[in-house]
Design a protein that fits this description.
single chain, binds 2-acetamido-2-deoxy-beta-D-glucopyranose, signal, mainly alpha, Azaphilone pigments biosynthesis cluster protein L N-terminal domain-containing protein, PigL_N
């Protein structure tokens, strides 16, 4: 991870993957939105995250060599925080899915 260009390239790959995953999640949430307040809020969070990711992607791809060097720590940090944030969204989705399973099984009783 020493070479600033590899760092930037890795960051761009992670960002692109995160945008894809977040958009897919956004689409999934769409079908449940309205039935569940938590999901409505989650969608708001996803929209914000996608916007942040797009601006991060734009900034990262515009960085020149010297700037990349200067920012490589920040990029690594951002990628790490992004991972943590996506993990939290994952956990939230798990909670929501679990709640839905509980509700469905109660309805069947
Ligand atoms: C997220 O989903 C909503 C519909 O539920 C859509 O209008 C919006 O464009 C999507 N956002 C992105 C960034 O894909």
């Amino acid at each position: 991870m020493g070479d600033p260009f590899s760092v930037a390239a890795s960051a761009l790959t992670i960002i692109a993957a995160a945008i894809g995953a977040t958009k897919a999640l956004n689409e999934t949430v769409k079908s449940y939105k309205g039935r569940d307040k938590t999901l409505g809020r989650l969608q708001g969070g996803l929209e914000d995250l996608i916007t942040t990711l797009h601006s991060l992607q734009e900034k990262t791809s515009k960085l020149t060599h010297g700037v990349i060097e200067e920012y490589s720590e920040m990029i690594k940090d951002t990628a790490y925080h992004l991972e943590v944030r996506l993990q939290r969204i994952d956990e939230k989705m798990e909670d929501v899915a679990a709640a839905h399973r509980t509700t469905s099984s109660k309805l069947q009783e």
